[in-house]
Design brief:
heterodimer, A: 106 residues, mainly beta, 0% helix, 49% strand, B: 117 residues, seven-stranded mixed beta sheet, four-stranded antiparallel beta sheet, 11 strands, globular
Chain lengths: 106, 117
């Protein structure tokens, strides 16, 4: 299975820029997607196909990358962005998720 | 408005089976895939498999073959997942999520399954 590796946690101050990385164990082309999950809630789609912003998601969120290295950027970070962020690939079977990056605000 | 309404929490005994439901509204059920996903407490999300609302065609993560069976009822726009031979390792929150080809654009709130004697 394709393993997606994310940093476990990040802490930033409101107003700062944060980048969350996701590295794949093999190429996933641009079939990488990002989700936000708040405690006790279901995930919500933020970015699809590496760099496309889902409808209704603030333009503070952006995604980039291809192949094995991907980035989710939040600029500027707001207090409401406290959550766990997951990457997910759909190039290789089975579809897999990263372990999640927990974003905390200072 | 797209809505996915999942069935309530389940407490089941080891060795038993359980059937979870995901009732949809707000879109054409037969035009989309529905995926099921598993999330154990504080852990990663795993994709179990998907089913096409139009013809019931399925695809499974090899890990969950024999454990999960996906079905649909087009007349009620509802997707189902049967989980069999339950063990403590099956205790988790199970989400249904509408699939737009490669990703999941709408998720249900999840159903918590607890396997305990």
């Amino acid at each position: 299975d394709t393993v997606l590796t994310q940093s476990p946690a990040l802490a930033v101050s409101p107003g700062e820029r944060v980048t969350i990385s996701c590295r794949a164990s093999e190429s996933v082309s641009t079939l990488m997607h990002w989700y936000q999950q708040k405690p006790g809630q279901q995930p919500t789609l933020l970015i699809y196909l590496a760099s496309n912003l889902e409808s209704g998601v603030p333009a503070r969120f952006s995604g980039s990358g291809s192949g094995t290295d991907f980035t989710l950027t939040i600029d500027p970070v707001e207090a409401d962005d406290t959550a766990t962020y997951y990457c997910q690939q759909s190039w290789n079977d089975p579809w897999t998720f990263g372990g999640g990056t927990k974003l905390e605000l200072k | 408005e797209v809505q996915l309404q999942q069935s309530g929490a389940e407490l089941v005994k080891p060795g038993a089976s359980v059937k979870l439901s995901c009732k949809t509204s707000g879109y054409t059920f037969s035009n989309y895939y529905m995926s099921w996903l598993k999330q154990m407490p504080g852990q990663n999300i795993e994709w179990i498999g998907n089913i096409y609302g139009g013809n019931g065609g399925t695809g499974y993560n090899q890990k969950f073959k024999g454990k999960a069976t996906l079905t649909v009822d087009k007349s009620s726009s509802t997707a189902y997942m049967d989980l069999s031979s339950l063990t403590s390792e099956d205790s988790a929150v199970y989400f249904c999520a509408r699939g737009d080809d490669w990703y999941f654009d709408f998720w249900g709130p999840g159903t918590m399954v607890t396997v305990s004697s």
